[in-house]
Design goal:
single chain; 509 residues; eight-stranded mixed sheet; seven-stranded antiparallel sheet; 23 strands; AB_hydrolase_fold; Epox_hydrolase-like; hydrolase activity; AB_hydrolase_1
Length: 509
């Protein structure tokens, strides 16, 4: 693959969701799949620098040309460009390629599409990342672009791009338009995007000084379908209608990479952090909106993507509110004599403790006693079902604990029909009485039902983990105590999910 020559990439085509779609598909044998979504008006080749690098890291890379652009069909009706329709394009393409799940990464409009795809098809997404476009929850009321511009004048260029005049001007001055749009950080006054429209001439190119070609532009490039691609600026009302009922909370591991060209206002950052609890944010300095090209090495490393995939916080036991999110049980609930409690210590840690008794109740139907357990409560169901954790990006369940010499088990319940089905593993404590981090490979958990190991073992559905618990079933009388700080899904420095991590970029030819 030669980033300067688009013809050297693996071009493919498919009929999906009623359109003929073009896409790039590299390293097809890999099961680790990235879906790269381009913005406007750079087409799939906006990722031309990243694709060769990512395939060397062992990923399969799918980079579609979005509807309305390049070699993909361009419907003429604006209603065909809504977020739900475009998300269905991606899902249909994955169905065509028989790919169940992906990490989705977008830039510009592709970043917006990545967020919405994660909301419309959460079961297809392992993690989501966006360059230059922060997450915005679906609006509850429709606001026309004309009203938005009154509040945020720097978006006047978006209003202009909805007009027939803009389409004509771009078509008649395409090369000069590209030269002005694709410019590095050092050559623009405020923003390479905002600077494309001049408030005095009320134009993109006409009446403005010509600018030289930047190295950001590839030597060879495809002409976009301007009429189709401009639909992305005209579809505001369609997007509102299709997205207004989406769950505004994204629980997937998420990464947003911004530039210092246009810093986000604090209220927008606050909304994003509240709406995406597992979000990591990075800023690449001294670069423009076109950081994929201008800072290709930093963006190829995704500036923190490895750290983003290192851990996913699941549960903490540091406040009274945390403690209230756990259920406690022991044989006393059925007439036995064991005692169990979960309390917050003065150091702000959860303490699961009590006393185990093997004495049987008078009820002769009870033939075995002597157990205690805690379990995280199921989160409140929404119209989209019960929220679950997607841990498929990680290899280990990690627990920060301090316990005694008793034999504890870790229990995972996935989103299955039978509530008694659990995946269990011994919680081996190497230093009883001291704090330690125990890391248990997800693949080592054993499938059980009603406490019995099942003869036909099945793989844990790690995309849908519903609850996590700790139990004590060693049937030894006497006191027990284990403190818990936090529980996370994690990778080590050398692992990435079930795969061993490829050497760092410096070791790749």
């Amino acid at each position: 693959m030669n980033p300067s020559d688009p013809s050297t990439f693996n071009h493919q085509y498919a009929n999906v969701n009623g359109i003929h779609m073009h896409y790039i598909d590299e390293n097809q044998s890999s099961k680790k799949v990235l879906l790269l979504l381009h913005g406007w008006p750079d087409l799939w080749c906006g990722w031309r620098q990243q694709i060769p690098y990512l395939t060397k890291l062992g990923y399969r890379v799918i980079a579609p040309t979005l509807r309305g652009c390049g070699e993909t069909d361009a419907p003429t009706d604006t209603s065909a460009y809504g977020d739900r329709t475009i998300s269905t394009d991606f899902a249909a393409l994955l169905d065509h390629l028989e790919i169940p799940t992906v990490i989705v990464i977008g830039h510009d409009w592709g970043g917006h599409a990545a967020w919405r795809f994660t909301q419309f098809y959460p079961e297809r997404v392992i993690g989501v990342s966006s360059f230059c476009v922060p997450y915005s929850p679906p609006a509850k009321e429709y606001t026309p672009i004309e009203e938005i511009v009154k509040l945020v004048p720097i978006l006047t260029y978006q209003q202009y791009l909805t007009t027939p005049r803009a389409e004509q001007e771009i078509n008649e001055h395409l090369e000069d338009f590209f030269k002005r749009l694709f410019r590095p950080f050092s050559e623009v006054k405020q923003s390479s995007i905002v600077d494309i429209y001049d408030m005095e001439t009320k134009s993109l190119v006409v009446g403005r000084p010509l600018v030289p070609k930047s190295d950001l532009l590839p030597q060879k490039y495809q002409k976009p379908k301007i009429a189709g691609s401009l639909q992305y600026y005209k579809r505001g009302e369609v997007n509102f209608e299709e997205s207004k009922d989406l769950d505004p909370i994204i629980t997937k591991p998420a990464l947003v990479i911004l530039t210092d060209e246009l810093p986000l206002p604090p209220p927008m950052i606050k909304i994003m952090e509240e709406s995406v609890p597992n979000l990591e944010t990075h800023t690449i300095e001294n670069t423009s909106h076109w950081l994929l090209w201008e800072k290709s090495e930093e963006s190829m490393r995704m500036d923190g993507l490895q750290g983003w995939k290192k851990e996913l916080p699941l549960l903490t036991l540091n406040t009274k509110q945390d403690i209230n999110q756990w259920a406690i049980g022991c044989d006393k609930d059925i007439g036995g004599f064991s005692e169990a409690s979960l309390e917050l210590t003065s150091q702000g840690k959860g303490k699961f403790s009590g006393n185990i008794s093997l004495e049987l109740p008078a009820n002769r139907e009870i033939v075995q006693s002597g157990y205690a357990a805690i379990r995280s409560k199921e989160r409140d169901a929404t119209m989209w079902g019960t929220p679950c954790w997607d841990t498929s990006l990680f290899r280990y369940l990690a627990l920060r604990v301090r316990g005694d010499n008793r034999k504890y088990f870790v229990n995972i319940q996935t989103d299955t029909y039978f509530q008694t089905d659990l995946f269990q593993h011994r919680l081996f404590l190497r230093t009883p009485g001291q704090w330690e981090t125990v890391m248990v490979p997800f693949r080592d958990f054993v499938f059980t039902s009603n406490g019995m190991i099942m003869p036909d073992q099945v793989e844990m559905f790690r995309e849908k983990i519903k609850t996590i618990g700790i139990s004590l079933t060693d049937r030894q009388e006497g006191p027990f105590s284990i403190e818990i700080d936090w529980i996370k899904a994690m990778n080590s420095e050398d692992t990435e999910g079930d795969n061993d991590r490829t050497p760092a970029s410096s070791e790749i030819d």
